[in-house]
Design brief:
Rossmann fold, 6-stranded parallel sheet, 14 helices, glycosyltransferase, transferase, 2 domains, 388 residues, Glycosyl transferase, Glyco_trans_1, Glyco_trans_4-like_N
Length: 388
């Protein structure tokens, strides 16, 4: 165990500077002064400002290895070979870095970081924790990523922090019996207990989706359902979220589709939003409708804590937080007709909107970022105790 004279030293590994959910969650947790000495190590990143500039100065930032471009594992045998070489080089650079050698525990924040982190940890006694933010399925990780996760990463993990029960269940078959495994929701910037509730006398004005712009996040399906119910009315649809990982073309496609459906003037594409609570205060309804099972859905937690009327796909992590008709409405996944029907129901029933808003804000188990950090520390301490 770590002596009382110093704090636990944790090295967080991440492979990108894109503002994805994993990166934003780690930044939020590091901003609340967690009770460990944190260091962040990444491969070399691109020039100019990046998402990690929001990390507090007290967190040591280190760079090691070579760049890890997005999508490097797709594109045929040659691309796969290059991906493997990059992982191997990154693993060696990670293992030989001063930050790795001085860490009491290493926590991989993304699946790619877990792949090279596990290779580095194979020749080290440093405890290795994997943060699982994706379901352990080929559809979510890709064929190569799934093979690495199930054959290399999870069998080596001393601990796993999964963002939902669904995520942990998908990983459990590949873990060693002695591995520490816990469900801790991602740090989502929640302000618990201070929601601005939707009132029964509040007209429906704005429906929104807070998610990065990506075909599987369900923006197209929500746009289609919105157009069927609200075209030509004084009700707006807002998409909040950046378009990382090369999805600028999909964003343009969404805008063209909105025009084609006759709702272009009713749709706002806001890009990445830093002030999420202020954004959500302007919505009555928040939608999550990913086209494959969402491991957690940080947006669902954000909607609940803000007291929005939550509409979510009835599968994956969101279904662990939303009880249909109690604190939100669940919709059969990948069914635009059903989604349109739920939006129509909410449009007609202001009392239902008010009831679901109040129940959402009172959802048990919602954690602010400081509580999420404390839960992480408890897992780290269990991993170290098991190792001792």
């Amino acid at each position: 165990m770590i002596g009382q004279e110093r704090r636990l030293r944790v090295l967080h590994l991440d492979h990108t500077d894109a503002a994805g959910g994993a990166e934003l969650a780690l930044i939020r947790m590091l901003q609340v002064r967690p009770d460990w000495a944190a260091a962040l190590q990444t491969p070399p990143l691109g020039p100019g400002p990046n998402v990690w500039d929001a990390v507090p100065p007290r967190v040591a930032r280190r760079v090691a290895g070579i760049r890890q471009p997005a999508g490097a594992s797709s594109g045929g045998a040659l691309a796969a070979l290059g991906f493997g070489v990059r992982l191997a080089v990154q693993a060696v650079a990670t293992r030989t870095s001063a930050a790795f050698r001085s860490a009491d525990l290493v926590d991989a924040n993304t699946a790619r970081a877990a792949a090279y982190g596990a290779l580095a940890a194979r020749v080290s006694r440093t405890p290795f924790v994997v943060h699982l933010r994706d379901l352990v399925e080929p559809e979510a990780l890709g064929g190569a990523g799934h093979a690495l996760m199930t054959r290399v990463v999870l069998p080596r993990a001393d601990g796993v922090i999964a963002n939902s029960r669904a995520t942990l269940d998908s990983a459990q078959p590949y873990l060693r019996p002695e591995a520490i495994a816990e469900v801790v929701p991602s740090a989502s910037g929640l302000t618990v207990g201070a929601a601005l509730l939707v009132r029964a006398d509040t007209p429906l004005k704005t429906i929104g989706m807070l998610a990065r712009i990506d075909p599987w996040k369900g923006q197209a399906e929500l746009l289609e359902a919105f157009a069927r119910v609200f075209a030509g009315r004084d009700i707006r649809l807002q998409f909040a979220g950046g378009a990382p990982f090369g999805h600028e073309g999909y964003l343009a496609e969404l805008q063209r589709r909105a025009d084609g459906l006759g709702v272009g003037s009713q749709v706002d594409v806001l890009g990445h939003v830093d002030e999420v609570p202020r954004l959500l205060d302007g919505w009555e309804v928040g939608v999550q409708y990913s086209t494959r099972p969402e491991p957690l859905g940080q947006n669902v937690l954000q909607y609940l804590a803000a007291g929005r009327v939550v509409v979510a796909a009835d599968e994956g992590g969101p279904a662990e937080w939303v009880s249909d008709g109690v604190n939100g409405l669940l919709v059969p996944p990948r069914d635009v007709d059903a989604l349109a029907g739920v939006l129509r129901r909410l449009d007609r029933d202001s009392a239902l909107r008010a009831h679901l808003s109040g129940a959402a804000a009172a959802t048990p188990g919602l954690l602010d970022d400081a509580a999420v950090a404390r839960a992480h520390l408890a897992v780290y301490e269990r991993v170290l105790a098991a190792r001792d």
